[in-house]
Amino acid sequence: MVITMVTESMVIHKSCIFPQRKCYELLLLYTFLLSKPESVLAFDWNVRPSFSLSEVFSDNLELSDTAKKSGFITEFAPGISLYGNSPWSNFNLNYRMQGLYNAAGSQSVDINHQLQMNSLYQAVRNTLFLQTSSSISQQNTSNSFIATDNLTGNSNRADVKNFTISPYWTPHFGQYASGLVKFEYQNTTFDQASGSDTSLAISDSNNFLYQARLSSGSKFNQVRWNLNYSAQDQKRTSDDDVHFEQLQGDTRYYINRKFNVFALAGYENNDYQTTQNEPDNGVFYTFGGQWSPSQWYSLEAGYGNNRYVMMNINPSTNFTSNITFRNKEVGLNTGNSWDANLNYRAKQTNVGFNYFQETTTVQQVLIQQRIFTQQDEFGNVVLDPVTQQPELFIINQPPYVDDVIIRKRGNISFGFNTGKSFYNASVYNERRTYEQRAEEDNIYGASGSWQWQFAPRINLYLQPTWQSTENDTNGNDRYDVALGLTRSIPINLGRPLLMNTRIEYRHIDQISDDTDFDYTENRATANFAVQF
Prior knowledge:
The protein is mainly β. Helix content is 5%, strand content 60%.
């Protein structure tokens, strides 16, 4: 369904299908759109309602090895996708209301809301912008007891709600300089999920981010320069606040097309509670040079109290790589650290490796998570094999605690497509250390999938997953295997549509150091889903 015109006479009713706390976000965006009626009229709107119905049998509704209970769960999930686009702006919203009967053996109806909204509005073209986003999802709150979804188990789940609004200005000073001035407000709230009986150990937060940048323009050919300032204040409702701040300036002199030298200096000021070493604040500096013999290769090195070596090797359009080694004495992630990103793409094959280290918080990780557009290493949307909705539960997230986390994550991925079969495999390792808890998590995981189209509109799939979590208090191993068959059936509801039908068998086994967290579940699912 496509709507090509919106007028000012449209009314937004008080009865919103979204939770009341989120209605104001859509009202806010609508107000901004109406402030420039000509751009609203220029929007092309695409509206796609959807509906999914599943019947699930589980032999362990409560995910307990000591109190096993079997039964059926009914899931009904109406949803809507709304996409608006104009030469100046865009708006994208996905919403699903997940209704469940007898989830976790409750013999009652539970309603879960899942939402992802993103928008970009240009108040003044190429100069003044307003960016917003919002999400609602349900997630596991710890690594000790990991549920797959909202259907089974009644603990360790939270409703996570995020809202972000960010106005920014990109001034241009002729050929001399260009800049960025940006303010961003982020709100994150946590509530017990429907049916969950576990209290939460994480605070709601309000984040305030500030960013300013001024860069040299085309008038500066041989000497280029940048000035950057960034700060983040995370205000927590029931725990200590977090503050990150950095000021940096750099200049680069181009001797010729192949060689340039640079110098940078700045100041870091970070403040958070820690039982480890205090943050290494102060002045930092680096000076060095870059050698670029061609557009395919470059090597850059800098020496100072923050040292690094960076290498780019891109011998073809199919292979790209960037590897950076740092040794820092000032700022976040001090000591030795690596960042690497290698990708190879061919007609039928994708191979990738990435590694990074970052200092962050759980609230920041969740704000960056996209609920309806989770992607694998190849940029493909990760879908639940039964409902064909994106996977909402991410099983390798940090536990929900108020802390500053240092994450080190490496991932190797492989994909191969024969035309009728698609193979995908991924192996990862993530290590987390916590500034207050003085603990460390070590997570290993591997996943794979095989999908075979053995007849028109009929597919067979197999999806195994394994993850091992080791920490100071409790560790576990989790195995998850799904085997299913899908078929798309043409239907006509005023216009030609495809109804996706599925049957699936799934086996999940969690083995924990604490036997209270052990469980085995077998489930069978029948589903149909249609997008109008």
